[in-house]
Task: inverse folding
């Protein structure tokens, strides 16, 4: 199978094209430190062509999930070092997803601090989990232009910390209605000035962050994830193909290790084909995800539409997913009730094939 064949992505030599998508699981401790349970979980899945670790806070005070990990403190670096060591001991490779929650953050998770965003537009139609139960999202504060270099510096420091923690590279999180995606898409970005208006201006922060990560790692160990169609977190854009085209061109110029494109919308509110322009304009390794079966992934790779597929819930529930695909074995069913709950149940207790 093409899906099980090796792939070179920049400096990364991947043994197969069955990648593990970044999945928020909320198993860090109250100080956002990675835990030994997380090390066990990721090591179980080391047969992935590449593990893309979950969204990880680059700066203190920007929590969106309550128990998600960070990469801004020495304790967090040490916690992640245990994770990377465990994955490497099993022969795996792992990159860290660098993330800022933007307007998806909540004061109850961040010492009362108001979240920041490109514009003062709140997420609607959903609620956030907090220590006091589910709460509506609040209206964020619009970032000033003179604050944005501090955001870029925070991502750069996080990239340096990820290197200290032993990762094999980093993925910049530019998807799913978090800060960088909020700047990119015109449904959330209504500002003027150098970071608003045109596609070039709206993409500026994402590309500045990408360049900061490249400065630390080199382009060949940096990836970017985008979700031009996904309406999660109240997101929309008037021209998803145009933003995909521009980002793909910019990533191709930079020669990054891969571009990771979420192909559709969780809620089917937006339709369109963003993979074709991504393939046309990005000359490196193209990864896609969202709902692929192994057969569909094999067909897409064989036809040259993609180079690899990142599997989410199927990797969550099947720690030996590449072996199961090779054997055409049945898959464990995921347990959504335990996606974000503490402890090993629904996390490290999914069985491998007998």
Result:
């Amino acid at each position: 199978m093409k899906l099980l064949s090796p792939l070179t992505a920049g400096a990364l030599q991947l043994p197969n094209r069955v990648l593990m998508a970044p999945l928020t699981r909320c198993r860090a401790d109250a100080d956002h430190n990675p835990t030994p349970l997380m090390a066990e979980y990721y090591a179980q899945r080391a047969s992935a062509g590449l593990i893309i670790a979950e969204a990880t806070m680059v700066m203190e005070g920007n929590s969106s999930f309550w128990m998600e990990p960070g990469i801004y403190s020495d304790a967090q670096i040490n916690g992640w070092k245990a994770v990377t060591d465990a994955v490497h001991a099993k022969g795996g490779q792992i990159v860290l997803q660098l993330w800022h929650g933007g307007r998806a953050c909540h004061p109850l998770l961040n010492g009362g601090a108001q979240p920041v965003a490109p514009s003062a537009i709140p997420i609607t139609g959903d609620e956030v989990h907090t220590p006091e139960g589910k709460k509506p999202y609040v209206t964020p504060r619009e970032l000033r232009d003179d604050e944005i270099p501090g955001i870029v510096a925070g991502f750069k420091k996080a990239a340096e910390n990820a290197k200290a923690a032993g990762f094999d590279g980093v993925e910049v999180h530019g998807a799913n209605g978090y800060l960088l995606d909020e700047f990119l898409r015109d449904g959330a970005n209504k500002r003027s000035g150098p970071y608003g208006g045109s596609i070039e201006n709206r993409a500026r922060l994402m590309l500045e962050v990408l360049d900061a990560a490249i400065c630390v790692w080199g382009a060949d160990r940096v990836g970017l994830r985008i979700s031009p169609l996904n309406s999660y977190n109240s997101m929309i854009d008037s021209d998803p193909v145009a933003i995909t085209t521009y980002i793909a061109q910019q990533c191709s110029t930079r020669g990054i290790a891969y571009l990771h494109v979420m192909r559709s919308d969780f809620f089917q509110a937006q339709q369109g084909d963003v993979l074709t322009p991504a393939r046309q304009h990005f000359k490196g390794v193209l990864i896609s995800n969202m709902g692929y079966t192994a057969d569909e992934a094999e067909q897409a790779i064989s036809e040259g539409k993609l180079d690899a597929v990142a599997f989410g819930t199927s990797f969550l529930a099947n720690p030996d997913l590449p072996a199961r695909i090779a054997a055409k074995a049945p898959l464990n069913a995921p347990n959504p009730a335990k996606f974000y709950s503490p402890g090993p149940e629904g996390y490290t207790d999914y069985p491998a094939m007998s």
About this structure: The chain has a mean pLDDT of 98. DSSP finds eleven helices and 14 strands in the chain. Residues 2-338 form a domain with the TIM Barrel fold (CATH 3.20.20.70). The two ends are 22 Å apart (CA to CA).
